[in-house]
């Protein structure tokens, strides 16, 4: 099992011009590592709709890699999106699901099927072309750049990672947040992000 | 269910207008009333069709498409509009996406004129029609009815209004397209 830092530090090191879309307990942690206008926090938004939002960005920007950092609770809310992603035919979307088996920001209540659900198997069954699962930091860090840089084979990529639950609290959009993409409204950041994608 | 008839508006007229508006993607789920339009969009050279598994997905995908510079349109039934509530609120509305949504208006033909609670359980009334417009009002989504080909200018008006307000706007299709 990885910590969030073990998951995100290597990603921050190898990320260049990829879009990164974050959700729930990963939002602040990523925002402290990255200050890019190509980051988008699916916060103050609609829980369960991060992967489908990322799919839309990937469809509209086929020449750009889109990395979605989704939570397992959020993914469970819209498992059908796995089928939609495959149906779309995108090959530039890399969907991470961070499996901590809890709703972390509401106090780590267990998600349904917490100890049973196999997200990588679900992704394979939905038709994802490239599926990975990591539960050890070294193996993940060694493979990450290859996953991001290799020519994607015939469809979207799914990466499930076992991460330890921590104690991230509720997320707000306000000046008191310490990450830039949470210091403005979803409305305003959407326009900044959109402009960055146009450049 | 809206039963397709030969008196309804033409799907061809609508798809031609969507192309004229430079719609790049249509995201949604077909029903009997929109089936003809879905068929035409699936064959269209400049509009990409994406079918989703639940209507709430459509608003999130469309919002992402807009972020990425595309011009999406959502096509769903009014039952799916109700399903979409939090996604519509939390993505397209909250982000200020100028998004036009075509919603087939199941139950419109038998919409009662009176408003007692009984209409929600009467077998001769489709309760989804009863709550469609009040729901859009509550969600602050502007809308107009699209009853026939004569209403085609309302498509342009919907896009104009969505752009002006930076907000989703709905067009309610009261008859099956043919």
How would you spell out the order of helices and strands of chain A?
A: HEHEHEHHEEEHEHEH
- What is the total domain count of chain B? 1
Structural class of chain A: alpha/beta
Taking all residues together, what is the mean pLDDT of chain A?
Answer: 95
Q: How far is it from the N-terminal to the C-terminal residue of chain A, by CA?
A: 38 Å
Chain pair with largest interface: A-B, 33 and 34 residues
Radius of gyration of chain B: 15 Å
Number of strands of chain A: 8
Percentage of β-strand residues of chain B? 15-25%
Uncertain ranges of chain B: none
What number is the mean pLDDT of chain B? 95
Number of domains of chain A: 1
- Proportion of residues in helical segments of chain B: 40-55%
Oligomer: heterodimer
Distance between the termini of chain B: 15 Å
Number of helices of chain B: 7
CATH topology of chain A: Rossmann fold
Rough shape of chain A?
globular
Report the principal-axis shape of chain B. Answer: globular
């Amino acid at each position: 099992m990885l910590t969030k830092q073990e998951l995100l530090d290597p990603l921050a090191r190898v990320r260049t011009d990829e879009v990164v879309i974050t959700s729930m307990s990963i939002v602040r942690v990523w925002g402290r590592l990255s200050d890019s206008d190509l980051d988008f926090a699916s916060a103050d938004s609609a829980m369960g709709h991060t992967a489908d939002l990322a799919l839309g960005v990937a469809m509209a920007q086929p020449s750009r890699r889109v990395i979605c950092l989704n939570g397992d609770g959020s993914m469970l809310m819209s498992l059908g999106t796995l089928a939609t992603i495959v149906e779309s035919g995108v090959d530039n979307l890399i969907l991470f699901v961070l499996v901590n088996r809890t709703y972390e920001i509401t106090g780590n209540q267990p998600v349904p099927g917490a100890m049973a659900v196999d997200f990588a198997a679900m992704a394979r069954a939905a038709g994802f072309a490239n599926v990975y699962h990591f539960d050890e930091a070294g193996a993940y860090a060694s493979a990450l750049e290859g996953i991001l840089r290799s020519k994607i084979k015939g469809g979207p990529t799914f990466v499930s990672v076992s991460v330890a639950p921590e104690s991230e609290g509720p997320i707000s959009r306000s000046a008191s947040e310490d990450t830039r993409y949470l210091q403005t409204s979803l409305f305003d950041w959407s326009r900044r992000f959109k402009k960055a994608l146009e450049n | 269910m809206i039963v397709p008839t030969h008196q309804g508006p033409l799907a061809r007229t609508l798809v031609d207008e969507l192309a004229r508006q430079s719609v790049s993607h249509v995201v949604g789920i077909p029903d009997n009333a929109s089936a003809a339009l879905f068929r035409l969009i699936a064959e269209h050279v400049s509009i990409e069709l994406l079918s989703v598994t639940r209507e709430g997905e459509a608003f999130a995908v469309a919002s992402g498409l807009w972020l990425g510079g595309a011009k999406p349109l959502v096509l769903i039934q009014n039952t799916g509009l109700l399903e979409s509530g939090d996604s519509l609120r939390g993505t397209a509305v909250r982000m200020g996406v100028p998004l036009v949504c075509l919603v087939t208006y199941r139950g419109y033909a038998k919409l009662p004129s009176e408003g007692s609670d009984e209409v929600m359980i009467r077998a001769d009334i489709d309760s989804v029609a009863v709550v469609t417009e009040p729901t859009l009002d509550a969600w602050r989504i502007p809308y107009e009815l699209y009853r026939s080909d004569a209403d085609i200018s309302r498509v342009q008006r919907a896009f104009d209004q969505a752009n002006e307000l930076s907000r989703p706007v709905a067009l309610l299709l009261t008859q099956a397209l043919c």
